[in-house]
Amino acid sequence: MEQKIIIFDTTLRDGEQSLQVSLNVKQKLQIAFALEKLGVDIMEVGFPISSPGDFESVHTIAQKIKNSCICGLARCIDKDIDVAAEALKIASNFRIHIFLGTSNLHIQSKLKKNFKQIVEMAIYAIKYARKYTDDVEFSCEDAGRTQIDNLCYIVEAAIKAGAKTINIPDTVGYTIPCQFKKIIKTLYNRVPVIDQAIISVHCHDDLGMAVGNSITAIQAGARQIEGTINGIGERAGNTALEEVIMAIKIHKPLLKAYTNIKHQEIYRTSQIISQLCNVPIPINKAIVGNNAFSHSSGIHQDGVLKNRKNYEIIEPSSIGVQEAKFNLTSRSGRAAVKHHMNKMGYQDSDYDMNKLYEVFLKLADKKGQVFDYDLEALAFINNQEEQPEYFHLEYYNIQSRSFNLAVASVKLKCGNTTHSKSATGNGPIAAIYEALNNITGLSINLEKYQLTSKGHGRDALGQVDVVVTYKKRCFHGVGLAIDIIESSTKAMVNALNNIWLVQQVEIKRQKLQYNNKNIISGK
Ligand code: KIV
Ligand code: ZN
After folding, report:
1. Cβ–ligand 1 contact at 181 (below 6 Å)
2. Average pLDDT over residues 171-192
3. Which of 124-128, 346-350, 400-404 has the highest mean pLDDT?
4. Of 61, 50, 68, nearest to 14 (Cα)?
């Protein structure tokens, strides 16, 4: 029979406590709504005793979230438990999570107690928390380094005291999968009352084993997995829940397990959390990284075009990503170039593949990544790596003072004529972009702006990468200069030139269609 794995999300507690800037109540609530939509069974949303702000956010989330159980953390201290219960009690369904160090290291050097006292504290706190709810979870902090006899002993005592969930954290990410599996198996073999509680695991990623340890724990009998979205959390982070969830889905027959997660929400939730927490997702991060569904080498791209399953184990749409991407680089083969042209609606007979591929490789060597509009320009405007530039920045001037709108004047060469316009904006770059919009009359949206320092110290150059949308199509622009206002302006002018090239392709296409029609009708 397949076992349900309970997904316990601690993004708003273990994840949030690791952020450089704490989240405010509104941001936490936004994340809680996303997690609820994702379908997490339990969300741990804070440590109410830790600050009035944490109390308020736990309380607000407890009030608003209806479909997940809301959990708050507490030490084995009466006041902690009282405050947690106070913050949580408005929830339709809540849990109190109590933790206490059980390894000799924690007991002696952190808590300055002996093991017997630790067991007494745990029993007392669990019974105390049970006054407020039946749903009490007890965590043996640093279980990964706790002597196994002690761990079995305290787990048995905690269950007998009334804990319904026993969490086994590898707090410092010390264990590797065979060791962690053995810990869980031993608990099942040696604790007589083990069936009266759910066994949970909570792994940290100091050795990069958190997901592996969690999966192996499922095989040993664990029924609850704790972690965070994108793996954010103390030091190297927590178990990345999206990875565990997808591993359970892909290996359902082997693990004989399932979750109630709505997989299509994974990508969206991951993006919201990355943006609100200001923690970028590594490009190669499993499941949700930008490259997780991108194919780069010619052999892979060709293989995917023949049958996606050659190089994809997860359908992008199953986690809410529209489709896999093909990066067009100098490693791409003809199949990928042809695929991009087809996707833009071109037939093989519309262009000369040999010529296009030859110049594509030259451009890719020079530019790194080639975009679909670059291919169009190569095929239909100019069969050279250097494309004509319609827009050319001649001059700009900025006036910007604190607490005032910035004013920008820009002179832009458009073909053979030069135009000047001024505009205001919240900052100098916004003002310049507005002035450029006024000159070109193109209604474009700035989707992404990224400033990167190239080089070291005062001589570093500022590189600006922008992504804009125009008529539902994405265009990139890049600008490099010592002055970041100049690089920002150049990046936008570069994007405008890419838009202009596509407009020229469109004009050519329309002319061609018109001529073809006339030939057919004999005009
Ligand atoms: O890592 C840990 O041990 C914890 C506990 C509070 C569960 O976060
Ligand atoms: Zn933790």
Report:
1. no
2. 98
3. 124-128
4. 50
Q: 76 C-alpha vs ligand 1 centroid, how far in Å? A: 13
* Under 8 Å between Cβ of 337 and 359: no
* For residues 493-507, average pLDDT: 94
Q: Is the pLDDT of residue 520 over 70?
A: no
Token pair in block for residue 181: 């599996």
Ligand 1 near 434 CB (within 6 A) = no
For domain 3-277, give the fold. Answer: TIM Barrel (3.20.20)
For residue 197, the CA-to-ligand 1 centroid distance in Å is: 18
Listed by start position, the domains of the chain span: 3-277, 294-381, 391-509
pLDDT of amino acid 519: 66
* Region 278-293 average pLDDT: 95
Eight-class DSSP state of 348: G
Does the beta carbon of 99 sit less than 6 angstroms from any atom of ligand 1? yes
Q: 202 CB less than 6 Å from ligand 1?
A: yes
In the beta sheet, which residues pair with residue 225? 7, 201
Residue to probe by mutation, ligand 1, list 14, 145, 205, most atoms within 8 Å of CB: 14
The answer regarding whether domain 391-509 maps to CATH 3.30.160.270 reads: yes
| pLDDT at res. 154 | 98
Q: Do residues 398 and 431 lie in contact, with contact meaning Cβ atoms separated by under 8 Å?
A: yes
